[in-house]
Amino acid sequence: MYRNLDMGKKQLKFNSRTIHGGQAPDAAYGAVMPPIYQTSTYAQSTPGGHKGYEYSRSANPTRTALESSLASIENGNYGLAFGSGLAAIDAVIKLLSPGDEVISTSDLYGGSYRIFKTIFEKYGIVFHFVGMQDTVEIAKHISVKTKLIWVETPTNPMMNIIDIKSVSQLARKHKILLAVDNTFATPYLQLPLDLGADIVMHSATKYLGGHSDVVLGALVVRDKELAEQLYFIQNASGAVCGPMDSFLVLRGIKTLHVRMQRHCENARAIAEFLANHPKIENVFWPGFPDHPNHEVAKRQMKDFGGMISFVPKGGHYQEAIKIVEKLQLFTLAESLGGVESLAGHPASMTHASIPKEVREKSGVVDALIRLSVGIEDKEDLIEDLRQAIE
């Protein structure tokens, strides 16, 4: 029972759509926020005679409200919410058949790499991991068996930028689906469907939820047939989110625009601080004019996001560990995108499932530190980094 979730509010500007897009007061009592429909099943007047809901794996009114909002903020027509970001990725790959091939970003989230390599490769799907900053490299791997291009931009954790519009033109030429993981940028900064993508994916655990209190994934598409296929997989596989989780992410979306403004403002200040610090060797942030694809980032993003990675001078593992252990305001933890600032060590945390020789090829060295810059006062965050580094 997929739904077209536009509800006629696409004409609103983005900030308004985060609050009102796809939303309406609850039909029963006029509740402004959708109620948490904590139910597994629904009464029927006759077999098959129901009010649009029969079983909460198939659909739940709170989840429908979230899916409506997701579709609206991504300029899509159909939204689907899942139990996690990886469950959403799982549904996309289940569109494929044994023998099909996927071209993926080489520098990507460790969980994405793990599900591609250890789960789906044994079912006969072939994955090619390539640097996508230049579409020439992508084109080299296209064959008649290529059915999907998987893009992350900015990439996790190297902050590489991929030109979605150029990749979409290449994908369309060869009749290949293009999916974009928009978790780091969020629809506040970047709208992949407008740039030619077929599928947008989110770990809504991150910026969309925004408060580190929920795990949830999302897909948004425009094409009705593609939505039907994905909904069938979602319902048949059952990796759906519950109504409470749906409610929490829907609430988070309503402040996405104001949070992202502060994330970006703080990240800019911290990136500049790190770049000018004598004990820091490399800083990876797409807002720098000398970033390899800075001009692409300027063109396809509203700002440069709240994620930064850096390597201490000398590139030593022990120095990186010492820094993250000394941080006080930044919390050493998995995940990202919450209101609080987080620090991570990708090689031993988020990307530990990628073999060392593979991750180091894409720049994820043992000394790399990743920051998710929160919305605290930037002066406090800079001081915390200063004391940990010095």
Description:
The chain is an alpha/beta fold and 390 residues long. The protein has two domains: 14-253, 3-Layer(aba) Sandwich (Aspartate Aminotransferase, domain 2), CATH 3.40.640; 256-389, Aspartate Aminotransferase, domain 1. It is 36% helix and 15% strand. It has 14 helices and twelve strands. It has helices at residues 14-20, 61-73, 85-93, 110-120, 135-140, 164-173, 186-189, 224-237, 243-253, 256-275, 294-300, 317-326, 356-361, 378-389, and strands at residues 78-82, 101-105, 126-130, 146-152, 177-181, 199-203, 217-221, 280-284, 307-312, 331-332, 342-344, 369-372. The strands form two sheets. It has a seven-stranded mixed β-sheet with strand order 1-7-6-5-4-2-3, sandwiched between helices. It has a five-stranded mixed β-sheet with strand order 8-9-12-11-10, with helices on one face. Helix 3 (85-93) crosses helix 4 and helix 12 (317-326) packs across helix 14. It starts with 13 loop residues before the first helix and ends with a helix. Mean pLDDT is 95; it is low at 1-8.
